[in-house]
Amino acid sequence: MKQETATKSFGGTQGVYSHSSKACDCDMRFAVFMPPADTHGPGPYPALYWLSGLTCTEDNFITKAGAQRVAAELGLVIVAPDTSPRGERVPDDPDGAYDFGLGAGFYLDATEEPWSKHYKMYSYLTGELPALIEKEFPVDGNRCGIFGHSMGGHGALTIHLKNPDKFKTCSAFSPIVAPGEVPWGRKAFSNYLGTDETKWVAYDATALVAKNPGPADILIDQGTADQFLEEQLQPARFAAACQASGQSLTLRMQDGYDHSYYFIASFMEDHLRWHHER
Amino acid sequence: MKQETATKSFGGTQGVYSHSSKACDCDMRFAVFMPPADTHGPGPYPALYWLSGLTCTEDNFITKAGAQRVAAELGLVIVAPDTSPRGERVPDDPDGAYDFGLGAGFYLDATEEPWSKHYKMYSYLTGELPALIEKEFPVDGNRCGIFGHSMGGHGALTIHLKNPDKFKTCSAFSPIVAPGEVPWGRKAFSNYLGTDETKWVAYDATALVAKNPGPADILIDQGTADQFLEEQLQPARFAAACQASGQSLTLRMQDGYDHSYYFIASFMEDHLRWHHER
Question: Which of residues 213-242 of B touch A (CB under 8 A)?
């Protein structure tokens, strides 16, 4: 692991790191915020994993979400990985579209060529990355949660529902909740996983929660002025599945907010305190 | 004036606007954060003008500084203009350097060709822009302050010292305080104002405060790990001039912080409350 940058922020340290990932077979970057040791001691600390949305890297969250202030107060580590494998050898959308390929890994393990060699974000996030984090940083692997935005909300929901003992708490901003039913997800899944839709349910939060509700109360914030709400997000699908299966869900429709980091920043403090209390 | 974007943020609205500027003889963009009317009423509100540093546009502050949360709480409008004139007709540094020309207007009125046609940021900020803001938004022109970062800290200090009745409060993050004595300022001033250095003192905070200290207590935060501290910033020059002239100054050296928006965000709340209390 190599430290790329380390910047003081709210008394703590916002770092960016790179390493050679076995799961993704390429160099990967991720960001880690460490709270101030002089107020919180040497750790180990609880940690939250943040999964970003389409087109993002590890940089968007750390510059725009305004999470460091409250994380420093609460003594939380926040890990923000990249959204896909990267590098010259990693194939991208043949048309360079924003919603598939680089910046759009969808937090799954691809099974189809040519994507399956590098697009292993699910294995990376549930195995290799937490192991590296717990080895290199004073993080308590038994007190981890996960949250994210849009495509990263989909990632957070599915990874929590499949690994509730590892990622014990879960929240999301404007998540994709039923990827098999919306254009972003159908494009990505048909390429990464193939056209047999029975294989898609392993990465579909609405399908997963219908069978295996998790133990945590899930928090979702969704802006009513979100330009992707009706076509791509449709949180009511997830809410209905939660109600049917007994999954505890707090879905808050936030009047007038859109899909941007202005929305995320406005409710970031709520989410950090939500995870911390649990 | 044209509204380019309007995004809900912490209950208020973060807008970006454009207009045809007479002072700069080009189209100019600026950002305005309006606090939530449902908690603060219809106004008029006090306003703070934020001046950004080299390479920035109106976008850096509104995405990275995390100011909206506290501005929404306090009922403050924040106006963040661009850092230079823009457009195809506006000349740039012949080598495309980051520290002169586009993104580097230095908040002065250029007198030398070819810069003098468009580079009139001082007139723009002290005349045209506040007049437009007070016409188009519920802003109280008698309750305005100014603050900024680096080159924008230089702008805030000089504009406050020359216009203390208009911009009544002033603070800065890692400002250029003696442009005539450091490489950034000497390059810009010799091009914009010519080689007669007696003309430079009109835009030199350390020279200005030696003659005309202002009524307000000025707040400056400076990171000790700032890579530009020794060569370009040198706040001790300004502190010495303030002490000699009786200018009230609160200079805080912040241990371990650098020149970035991570530093700015860490102390943004302090600055907003500082202005609001005054």
Answer: 223, 225
